[in-house]
Amino acid sequence: MQATLGGKTVLITGSSRGIGAELARQAAAAGASVLLVARDDTALAQVSRQIRDAGGHAHPYVCDLSDFAALDALVAQILAEHGGVDVLIHNAARSIRRPIARSLDRFHDFERTMQLNYFAPVRLSLGLLPSLRERAGCIGLVLSMGVLIPGPYFAAYLASKAALDVFGDSLAAEFHHEGVHVCSVYLPLVRTEMMAPTKDYANRNDVLSVEQAATLTLRGVVERRRRVITRRGAHLGAWNRIGPMLTTRMLSFLYATFPPSDTPSQHPKIHALFTKYVGGSPL
Ligand SMILES: NC(=O)c1ccc[n+]([C@@H]2O[C@H](COP(=O)([O-])OP(=O)(O)OC[C@H]3O[C@@H](n4cnc5c(N)ncnc54)[C@H](OP(=O)(O)O)[C@@H]3O)[C@@H](O)[C@H]2O)c1
């Protein structure tokens, strides 16, 4: 990582906590000058201080990426202060776990997730693309394993991640020959504040740590891999492509087994088995 990231300017969105903060710490430890972006100035200052105390270079930028005027001002400031970036990692996102049947009066959920998870990374990419082309840079997309096998509960979130995934594919196809690389990372569940509100996940035994998720992501970027997919993600994704109707039946069965918490399970024995061996809801 040091050979690739040493002396490079690496921008990481959503780096005030969770996976983004750890990405920033690991990139800085590898010698990168890290630009940290998020809304919480206190948390950003704290992560930046940790990086500097460890001998690294950190530059915090407070920005609400959902606000396009603020995002454009951020791009202008970064170009003025750093001339551009070598690596851009789109990590900031919001997740919503809510069934569509309970979203009938919540169109704003779909708008807000698209605004932050899709339109903001697209706009930031467009603003920084000239410098990424000059530097034969790399764009990292922090996506979700759910994009490979989209299921119930996460329609708004997964649709926004899928849109970003496809944008990344087009970017890669148009700029690969110029040396600009796109690395799409399909993470499974990671123990952060994002998954904390879902009590069904509290005891899941297949959850990555923040450190594991950040290392997986950064290694993919450094090694210029096109996609980073865990073995389970690859199996589930292949299953979804080969047998889409069977996949839908399975997911629908699991949704009936693990309905919203105020609704009784239609398959209590399967529910108990999953709870015993997986530690909670697989959805
Ligand atoms: N945790 C999981 O299970 C999991 C699984 C698969 C993929 N992922 C993906 O991994 C990435 C990081 O997730 P995480 O679990 O680390 O989430 P997290 O702990 O909730 O952190 C989200 C980060 O995004 C920032 N952010 C949120 N809204 C923002 C806005 N409007 N403008 C700028 N920054 C904003 C937050 O900082 P501020 O609040 O300070 O703005 C924070 O730094 C996301 O893309 C997520 O979809 C997570």
Automatic annotation (TrEMBL):
Gene Ontology CC annotations of this record: membrane
Protein's UniProt keywords contain DNA-binding: no
InterPro entries per UniProt: KR_dom, NAD(P)-bd_dom_sf, SDR_fam
Group of enzyme by EC: oxidoreductase
GO MF entries: oxidoreductase activity
Keywords for this protein: Oxidoreductase
Domain of life: Bacteria
SUPFAM superfamilies (alphabetical): NAD(P)-binding Rossmann-fold domains (SSF51735)
EC number in record: 1.2.1.-
Domain Ketoreductase: 8-193
Matching Pfam families: adh_short
Family to which the UniProt record says this protein belongs: Belongs to the short-chain dehydrogenases/reductases (SDR) family.
PANTHER family: DEHYDROGENASE/REDUCTASE SDR FAMILY MEMBER 7B, DEHYDROGENASE_REDUCTASE SDR FAMILY MEMBER 7B
UniProt-recorded name of the protein: Fatty acyl-CoA reductase
Native organism: Enhygromyxa salina
